[in-house]
Amino acid sequence: MHINQASARLNWALSILRRKKRVEKSLGIQLGTLENVSTCLLQLRDTRSNKEVVGAFRVGVEALRAVVMGDASADRVAATMDDLQQVLDECQDINSVLASGVQSSLAEGDDDDVLEAELNQLLAQPQESQDVNQQLASKLADLHLPDVPKNNPMAAFGMTSGDTPEKMA
């Protein structure tokens, strides 16, 4: 009986291993299918974007046709080509600057002089602001304001201190 129990347990363990392999295989198939669906969704999204780009190109072509139909002379075409070449040259200049990075036009030895001059300028600014503050203070001291009236100036018009012109109307 002891051998029968061991045999039953072994059969049970083998059965569980077979189920596990079937589930893993099924899971692999389902993951593959899910990946395919995700890829299809991405392709649909890209297709929509491409459709919008193609639509924009069509609108651009129609606009160019409308413009060119009005004046299809060789001079007009040459002028348009020159304008396009100028824009392309500007784009190329910008790309080359971005590719090379912004480089200082100053030589390495000049950096110290420039930085020292900038430091001196920054150190001089507080003194300049103090001078401005002193000038403002002296102007305020010279400023004479009229005395505060001792009686209500509106009394001459028959109004008391609580009355306002709006209340009188």
UniProtKB/TrEMBL annotation:
Family matches, as Pfam families: Snf7
Family of this protein: Belongs to the SNF7 family.
GO cellular component, one term: ESCRT III complex
Protein name as it appears in the record: Uncharacterized protein
Record-linked PANTHER family: CHARGED MULTIVESICULAR BODY PROTEIN, CHARGED MULTIVESICULAR BODY PROTEIN 7
Region (Disordered): 145-169
Segment forming the signal sequence: none
InterPro entries found in the cross-reference section: Snf7_fam (IPR005024)
GO biological process: late endosome to vacuole transport via multivesicular body sorting pathway; vesicle budding from membrane
